[in-house]
Design brief:
Layout lengths: L9 H17 L1 H4 L4 E4 L5 E4 L4 H17 L4 E4 L3 E3 L2 E3 L3 E4 L4 H6 L9 E5 L6 H13 L4 E5 L5 E5 L5 E2 L16
Parallel strand pairs: 7-8
Antiparallel strand pairs: 1-2, 3-6, 4-5, 6-7, 8-9, 9-10
Length: 180
């Protein structure tokens, strides 16, 4: 038996996501939590525990590499993005220079960054990462990178081939990052 889920149109979902995200940001109890917060398409809050130090180390290395190799754009960590399944936050994101003001003026991006990076943790499932990848592409991402726990990077694209040997936006980015 197959299941079909009817989603809100993107304008309605975006408006809902922005309203709900403003409520989440204004909640003083949620602000005190050390956890990562996202929402689903119904506005329910999804909380993840803080990741292990190695996760943060991989994030930091990706940020360093992006800032070094693509200095004209904006590199952000835990950037909220409105998707058809609520507000998601890639671990690292890169936005092209023309969009720099969005970072300062919006509480949540309504169009995904050009590069969205997910750094895997032991708690991530394959299905979860596949769904997030599809959501980021649907929201306008050009590339989605997946950093495995060993530091290897997979570069995903919307157009064939779906996975490539290097980034098209940042071809000098290494295939793997080290964890000290």
């Amino acid at each position: 038996m197959s299941l079909t889920i009817e989603l809100e149109n993107s304008a309605e979902q975006t408006a809902f996501n922005l309203k709900r995200w403003a409520e989440v940001l204004a909640d003083p109890e949620l602000a005190r939590l050390p956890h990562r917060i996202e929402t689903d398409r119904h506005g329910h809050i999804l909380i993840s525990p803080p990741p292990a130090p190695a996760h943060g180390d991989r994030e930091s290395e990706i940020v360093f590499q992006l800032k070094t190799l693509l200095p004209e754009g904006r590199t952000i960590t835990n950037c909220p993005v409105s998707t058809s399944d609520g507000v998601k936050a890639p671990d690292v994101a890169w936005i092209k220079p023309e969009r720099r003001l969005e970072v300062r003026s919006l509480i949540c991006l309504t169009r995904a960054p050009e590069i969205c990076v997910e750094v895997l943790s032991p708690s991530n499932t394959v299905r979860e990462i596949q769904e997030k990848t599809a959501l980021y592409f649907e929201a306008g991402a050009s590339e989605v990178w997946i950093c495995d726990e060993d530091g290897s990077i997979r570069f995903h694209f919307q157009t064939p081939p779906p996975i490539g040997p290097r980034s098209e936006l940042c071809p000098q980015f290494p295939h793997a990052i080290g964890v000290a």
